[in-house]
Design brief:
heterodimer, A: MetI-like fold, two-stranded antiparallel sheet, 14 helices, about 75% helix, B: mainly alpha, MetI-like fold, 2 domains, 15 helices, about 0% strand, globular
Chain lengths: ~300, ~280
């Protein structure tokens, strides 16, 4: 709807823009796109792309800062060491186990929380807030708070157990109980994020579908399994994949609750990478461990991207 | 507790059930924070009484005073604030530019770039501990805020870009065009028209970036050996008491660390929820 006079102004503006600096301020579409994306590209190269290359390179090297020797090429030695390293297998197994327990656990608890939060409460904010607080709480804080919960003498968990007549458990002295405490904490911390995602999905399901199902005589359970769950699937898949990838990186909660103990029975792969890198300064071995974790999570990301593409 | 048989029917359908469910939800979300608040208000003597007490009998702020004097808690808070705010500002600046290019400009590789950004959002930063450690060491950035600000920016960049792309796409092009007719450059129109009109999106992205940075633990633990540069989560976790782990003081420090984020969440809850659920992100 440009009038003649407006077009005139634009042309005049264009003609005026011949000095080099004006051209810089008003560049062509392609130059502008390159300029705008440059900071992102720069940051991603510095923090992701270059480090990934360097990671793979270092994993083939003998590089320990404590020995003071310069890096030397070691081929697959770090990887061979890893295969013979029981702590590598234990921490990897712990990581996988934490993933297998806490991801479905958080999904189930999150689904329950979302179904409850979807009820027609008169006040919405207390419910919304109680789903947001666990999400916003730092993982390390959650670990510390729950370590205090599970304290053998003064913890609230053992207090409740004693009140119902069960002898208190010394949670952090036994590998299994410590592991259970860690998994419970992770499930509590992550389920409310799941609940928020699922709740958003629930709120997009039209009420008319349920009314129609009711007319057809479908009960509550059939409605849940044949309307609610199928329509929630896309939201759940996205939440599950992110949760899986973060579960593979589990560090903060075991670190703050048990430091990996007793022994290394609750240590995760991320904790072992951290220990080798920061405490032992064995960068070669730390890198080889990280490559394993990298491959694990790339598999999950690959599945994720394929699903997104399948959605269109 | 005393809902006996006669009340069962109304309990299962009406208002009491809703109240019960609301109570369960609120307790699930708030109890840990409430419990640590109660703990922080108890005297040391009360904390070692068995069986334990639930509500503090004689509330005291002694633990808070000790939390600030035993260790440089104020400094930890300052470090966390500065790292979180600076990385949020950087994230917003970088992602506004990228999002504008993705939302408005003709890009042949648009889908490829978006896929790459989503892939980065699932990237396990933990695996880059070694190379980032080496890079920061080589650049002399270990024991500086910058060593944390740069990775935190990358951590939040994908989700912020995705949120902003969807907001920018909702701004009518006409507004931008008329600003350009009035003599604005494209970049000028971006910052004078598009960004202000997308303020809710920019806010949402900013809050998510802030919370991500405020919560991060592993890199903050690994890239700083100087206790004076610790962020709050690291400072509190590595708190050393004279004998055992000083739980009363820790509780007070935790409450101090929870308050800033809790305030943000209370004020901006609706925006945070919309930001979290608009695209899947890390949790």
């Amino acid at each position: 709807m440009a009038t003649a006079s407006e077009t005139g102004i634009i042309t005049a503006h264009r003609e005026g823009a011949t000095k080099w600096w004006t051209r810089f301020l008003d560049p062509s579409e392609r130059t502008l796109a390159a300029l705008l994306l440059a900071p992102t590209a720069l940051l991603l190269s510095l923090i992701i792309v270059y480090p990934v290359c360097r990671l793979v390179w270092t994993s083939f090297q003998n590089l320990s800062l404590t020995s003071g020797l310069p890096a030397e090429f070691a081929g697959l030695e770090n990887y061979r060491l890893m295969i013979d390293d029981p702590v590598f297998w234990e921490t990897t197994w712990n990581t996988v186990l934490i993933t297998l327990i806490t991801v479905p656990g958080a999904l189930l608890v999150g689904l329950g929380l979302a179904l409850m939060a979807n009820m027609p409460f008169r006040l919405k904010w207390p419910v919304r807030l109680s789903l947001l607080i666990p999400w916003a709480l730092p993982l390390s804080f959650a670990g510390l708070i729950f370590a205090w919960f599970f304290h053998s003498e003064y913890g609230v968990v053992n207090d409740v157990l004693r009140r119902v007549g069960i002898e208190g458990i010394i949670w952090f002295n036994s590998a299994n109980w410590a592991f259970a405490a860690i998994c419970l904490t992770i499930i509590w911390k992550t389920s409310s994020f799941m609940a928020l995602i699922i709740l958003a999905g629930l709120q997009t399901i039209p009420r008319s579908l349920y009314e129609a199902a009711e007319v057809d005589g479908a009960g509550r359970f059939r409605q849940f399994f044949e309307i609610t769950l199928p329509l929630l699937k896309p939201a759940i898949v996205v939440a599950l994949i992110f949760r899986t990838i973060t579960a593979l990186q589990t560090f903060d909660i075991p670190f703050t609750m048990t430091r990996g103990g007793p022994g290394t029975s609750t240590a995760t792969l991320a904790m072992y990478i951290h220990q080798n890198t920061v405490d032992f300064l064995d960068l070669g071995y730390g890198s080889a461990l990280a490559v394993v974790m990298f491959l694990l999570s790339m598999c999950v990301t690959f599945v994720y991207l394929r699903m997104i593409r399948a959605k269109g | 507790m005393n809902a006996e048989a006669p009340a069962t029917q109304s309990l299962l359908s009406g208002k009491p059930l809703r109240l019960l469910i609301a109570f369960i939800l609120v307790m699930n979300g708030m109890f840990p924070a409430l419990w640590i608040l109660f703990t922080s208000l108890k005297t040391e003597a009360e904390l070692t009484v068995k069986p334990i007490t639930w509500l503090p009998h004689a509330p005291t702020i002694a633990n808070y005073l000790r939390a600030f004097t035993d260790q440089p808690l104020l400094l930890f808070l300052f470090n966390s604030f500065m790292v979180a705010i600076l990385s949020t500002a950087l994230t917003l600046f970088v992602s506004v530019l990228a999002a504008y290019a993705l939302a408005r400009l003709q890009l042949r590789a648009r889908d490829l770039i978006l896929s790459a950004i989503i892939a980065v959002s699932t990237f396990p930063l933990v695996t880059l501990l070694v190379p980032l450690f080496e890079i920061m060491r080589a650049l002399g950035l270990l024991n500086t805020w910058v060593a944390l600000i740069l990775p935190y920016t990358v951590l939040s960049l994908p989700v912020c870009t995705l949120i902003l792309v969807s907001f920018f796409e909702g701004i009518p092009r006409d507004l931008e065009n008329s600003a350009m007719i009035d003599g604005c450059t494209r970049i000028g129109a971006l910052f004078k028209v598009v960004v202000p009109l997308s303020a809710p999106g920019v806010f949402t992205a900013g809050i998510l970036a802030f919370v991500n940075a405020w919560d991060e633990f592993l890199l903050a633990l690994s890239f700083n050996s100087n206790p004076m540069l610790r962020t709050l989560p690291v400072g509190i976790t590595l708190y050393q008491g004279e004998f055992a782990f000083p739980w009363p003081v820790i509780s007070a420090a935790l409450v101090v660390g929870i308050v800033p984020v809790a305030v943000l969440i209370v004020i901006f809850q609706e925006r945070v929820v919309s930001g979290l659920t608009s695209g899947g992100i890390k949790g």
